[in-house]
Amino acid sequence: MTVQLFFPLWLTIIFISFILLGLAAIFIKIWEIKKDYIATDAKPLDWLRRALILLLIGFIILGPSWQVGEALQPQPQTNVLFVVDRTGSMNAEDFAANKSRLDGAKDDMKKIINLYTDAQFGLITFDSVAITQVPLTYDSSGVISYINALTPQITKYSQGTKIDISASEIGNDLRAARIANSKSKNFIYFLSDGENNVGDNAANPQLSAFDTVKDYIDGGAVIGYGSLQGSKIKPYNFNSQSDRIGKNQDVITSEYIKDPAKGGQDAISKINPVVLTALAKDLSLQYFYSDSKIDLTNFINVSNVEQVNLLQRDLMPIIQPTVWPFELLIGLLVIWEFYHFVNMAVSTRGI
């Protein structure tokens, strides 16, 4: 047997408190009758009957419940959090012909969303800062709309890439989700080219900032974009009124970002699989490489989603509140009480 409260906890506590006070008063009355401290026609049995009525009412308020069977039911919520790199290097066009790394990441996120059932989705982007763009929500179509509108960071605001800048924001979101539902499952998909050029030992960062995040992650993947030979990067800038394309103020120019360290030649961005593999290992996740020739969902489906969706449809006990036996007992006791009251009235009138 278990209990399923019919009322909010605070209201249940108030009801039970009044019932306990009533029971205390009844037992004081019984004690006084036993000690002959008061004169009354009521017997201890009468007061015990009333105490039993109160006790049964309190028991019903607690919602006594029993298992009546089993069925496939959804498990507590699944949270899927995307963490997307939108730094300038993600605008390199080596995902496919005329298609940037960020375009590839956007396609993959939409495919991953379609793999999950009954899940909440959220989106964090990072460039010079990390921001929760979409808090966890069941509105998957809204998340997809935001993904479609996602753009790279405006080039003139770029301050380089620090791969662990998102750690604090990830921790805040997943911690809040776990507090809201302690049984929830958190899955994170980290999408980046792995370039890290800010901070000490930038080429091989320690990633210690993610240590506080691990306990809140139940699965997911780190997904890498870009090529080892590298690609040139088109800048993403805010153009003047006359240069707008349609309603878009931010447009990609036809020129490429230059590298001052190489005499102003076109800068070349390369994927850094070492950083991405280290991050995946640190978070106990799998690392996947993605490009236009790879259907990433085949790998993710095998490694994560089937397991999650099975969990979501696990065999769960069906718990049903059962109060009618207690209501029947209360009814019988009330009839007994009414009978006693009638006998007392007849006896008094007879006198």
In brief, what are we looking at here?
The chain contains 8 helices and 15 strands.
Structure in words:
- Helices cover 39% and strands 21% of the residues.
- With 351 residues, it is α/β, with parallel strands linked by helices.
- The protein has a six-stranded mixed sheet with strand order 5-4-3-6-7-14, with helices on both faces. A three-stranded antiparallel sheet has the order 1-2-15.
- α3 (101-115) runs antiparallel to α4.
- It has eight helices and 15 strands.
- It folds into two domains: 2-71 and 318-350; 78-312, von Willebrand factor, type A domain (Rossmann fold).
Number of strands: 15
Overall morphology: rod-shaped
Please work out how many helical segments DSSP would assign. 8
Average predicted confidence as pLDDT: 81
What are its keywords?
single chain; 351 residues; alpha/beta; Rossmann fold; 2 domains; 6-stranded mixed β-sheet; 39% helix
What's the SSE blueprint?
Blueprint lengths: L1 E2 L5 H26 L9 H18 L2 E9 L5 E8 L15 H15 L3 E8 L3 E8 L2 H9 L18 H14 L4 E8 L26 E6 L6 E2 L3 E3 L11 E3 L5 E2 L5 E2 L1 E2 L3 H10 L3 E4 L6 H17 L2 E7 L2 H27 L1
Parallel strand pairs: 3-4, 3-6, 6-7, 7-14
Antiparallel strand pairs: 1-2, 2-15, 4-5, 8-13, 9-10, 11-12
